[in-house]
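Please study the protein below:
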Amino acid sequence: MENDSQTLATDFIFLGFSNLAELQKLLFVVFLLLYLVTLSTNATIMTIIRVDPSLHTPMYFFLSILSFLETFYTFVIVPKMLVDLLAERKAISFLGCAAQMYFFLFLGCFHSFLLATMGYDRFVAICHPLHYNSIMTRRLCVQLVIASALIGLLVAQADTTLVFCLPFRASRKLNHFFCDIAPVLSVAFAHTNLSEAVVFTLAIFVLLIPLTLILISYLFILFAILKIPSATGRRKAFSTCSAHLMVVVVHYGCACSIYLRPNASYSSDKDAVISVAYTILTPLLNPMIYSLRNKDVKTALRKSLRKNRLSQKDFQ
């Protein structure tokens, strides 16, 4: 009995959506449907890219990795959140909270640097089209993805260690629906200015460095597009970048509004709302943006559906 009470004392309690008690079952249904659509759309994109030879290019290789990340990114947060919406006691263990934060940060950092890699791919395609195949080799693409993953692992390890080495209050109530940095730091007994400064510095590194690289890539892309003599050529060149740009705006807009400000200005209610968009809506919108605005993906999808219909007719 004593061990049970000690175990419970180490748990973190989520208070996210507690002020919407009468709407929690409705939110469960809405979020579950969004989650299932997210899984199905990302799975569809990964499958189409894998089975269609015309999509075996660096751009679509990176897109398949992005869809893979979106799938596991939501898996870290959404299933636990759905369970909590129907549970009376919305708790997570100390180790569970640390693991959730670690994988959330790893996948988020990986995502940020992968978007920078995709920006570099568009830069080479538009600014150096004749050398594209010799520059963006399969080996380089794999190396860029591995480098992005390693940076994510290192940042997640550093941030999670800094946060969970701190002593915590007996009452560990998080006004959030998952173990993010700011809400967990808010229940630390005495988090030092140094730990907060290191976490903030790492956030700057993870967000501003890849965002700066993306902006530099698109600056060169803009100059290259303006040199194209025909309006049709300019539109065609820009259309290959538009989906990536939209994803960049959504991802960095949400992330910067949460992480690029001192912990002292932490607003739990505001951050919870932004986090819903960041963890549920963004992974849903990204594959839709790429599929709806990308002619190659739409063509491959139609081709795949046609093949399925023909195979069903033959089977019958």
